Amino acid sequence: MDERAALSLVGGLVSSAGDDAAVVDGTVVTIDMLHEATDFPGGTTRYTAGWRAVGASLSDVAAMGASASAAVAVYGAPDFDEDELTGFVDGASEVCERVDAEYVGGDLDGHDEFTVATAAIGDVDERIGRDGASPGERVVVTGTLGRSAAALRLFEAGEIERANDLFRFDPRVAAGRALGEHATAMMDSSDGLARSLHQLAEASDCGFEIEAGAVPVADELRGLADDPLDEAISFGEDFELVATVPADAVSGVEAACDVPVSVVGEVTESGVSMDGDELADRGWTH
Amino acid sequence: MDERAALSLVGGLVSSAGDDAAVVDGTVVTIDMLHEATDFPGGTTRYTAGWRAVGASLSDVAAMGASASAAVAVYGAPDFDEDELTGFVDGASEVCERVDAEYVGGDLDGHDEFTVATAAIGDVDERIGRDGASPGERVVVTGTLGRSAAALRLFEAGEIERANDLFRFDPRVAAGRALGEHATAMMDSSDGLARSLHQLAEASDCGFEIEAGAVPVADELRGLADDPLDEAISFGEDFELVATVPADAVSGVEAACDVPVSVVGEVTESGVSMDGDELADRGWTH
């Protein structure tokens, strides 16, 4: 069974699975696991790893339209080097500070492969799921897409410091709360825009038409990739928010968000397309 | 740096580290990571693994004197077998049901080694830390000690079904809440009674005198271990609660708990001893 089939199986077993995070009595909770082989390219500092791992969980909280209150992590590694561990905790603490959450510790685990588990909690009055999009609404994306794809190119090229800078990101908690006032469906873009749209389309039983020229491709990716637009759309790992909002709410959302918001297309009855051509369900399978 | 030194380092960096779980605005949150090499002996079913991993996090919540509301998990494995995954989710869901919490899903991760990350949340008005014990108080332990040590022997002996039965446990959430009414310090016994006492002694700046004959050694361990008492005290992995309570609260605590509570000794000024002899700081380092 591949990972998507397995996720679908779990979705059938656990009633509340399927969103970026679970909500229980207004408390949002989410958990993630990242590890060296697939998530931390050679050159990733422990500071960046702590930031990114905890950030991924905070992004899940953001995608529910919630505020984030705290995060915890397990640091699993073959050995515990003081500088590495301090770096990790600093990165984890910093990314929490960025979203007014508190890093409240966690645990250590001896593990052959560097492996990090993170959980974040938050609060929400009205959760934003993936199933509320309706035809005619607009599709918006926060920030830019392709930063992580660019970081990976830079890691490969040995430009380690720039790569680490790009590999850290601000979880869109404030933007998620602003979007949450109007959004009918929302998720983060960690699987890539294309896959995110397919997931939203399936959950909301709708389609999407995207305008290629409106996709906010990260400047950092231009010059590094042969087809920056394609990578921005399908590479994923960017932790921006993808949301649907009524057309008349767009200007209010743009004004309320603390980051640029791009209108990239609209909700249709069915099918996911870009400039009229089918947009394949390609992206990152974690 | 060994794991205990590393934990101490983290404790200096993160103000709220050091207890079984963190508490933020009355919400308890904890995270754990278990993996095949150190936590799941050969023969452990995925059902037992799901139960035990989620149970470990629920036990951390219990140790704070809190109610448990929900748990999530990441299932990391080289492949996703339908029966294994279903078993895991069933075990995770069952252990949540036992403590009136809800298993609300999580995520999957392709991982060379079978690795599980779990987080649990709960609520508490007044947290029970590790630092409130005072000389003269009594030390109590819930249930019995040595079940996991016995399970390990049975796994080694090929008695897989009995081993799995013993390897699952009921997180002491209800007992933790009853104890929480009176306890001055509390933690779970996952590191073993001896190590737990040393940790409580350090946090509370006190000592303990334990009566060997009062330690509730699990019946299942007798006949399997050469020195059942020693293993019950030092093996750990049992997820019972170890708490200190004022002497006049003992009978009330015994009556209020839904499991047997044993008074195993009392809080002293300094030193950790059993029947007058020093009790070494031996136990499980996760």
TrEMBL record, chains A, B:
Q: One Pfam match, by short name?
A: AIRS
The protein, known as: Thiamine-monophosphate kinase
Membrane-spanning residues where?
none
Question: Additional info?
Answer: Reaction mechanism of ThiL seems to utilize a direct, inline transfer of the gamma-phosphate of ATP to TMP rather than a phosphorylated enzyme intermediate.
Residues recorded as binding Mg(2+) 3, renumbered to this chain, are: 20, 60, 188
- Reaction(s) catalysed by this chain's protein: thiamine phosphate + ATP = thiamine diphosphate + ADP
Q: Which residues bind Mg(2+) 4?
A: 20, 30, 60
Regarding protein family, the annotation reads: Belongs to the thiamine-monophosphate kinase family.
Q: Which UniProt keywords apply?
A: ATP-binding, Kinase, Magnesium, Metal-binding, Nucleotide-binding, Thiamine biosynthesis, Transferase
Mind telling me which Gene3D superfamilies this protein's record contains? PurM-like C-terminal domain, PurM-like, N-terminal domain
Q: Which GO terms describe its molecular function?
A: ATP binding; magnesium ion binding; thiamine-phosphate kinase activity
Chain residues that bind Mg(2+) 5: 191
Gene assigned in the entry: thiL
Q: Pathway listed for it?
A: Cofactor biosynthesis; thiamine diphosphate biosynthesis; thiamine diphosphate from thiamine phosphate: step 1/1
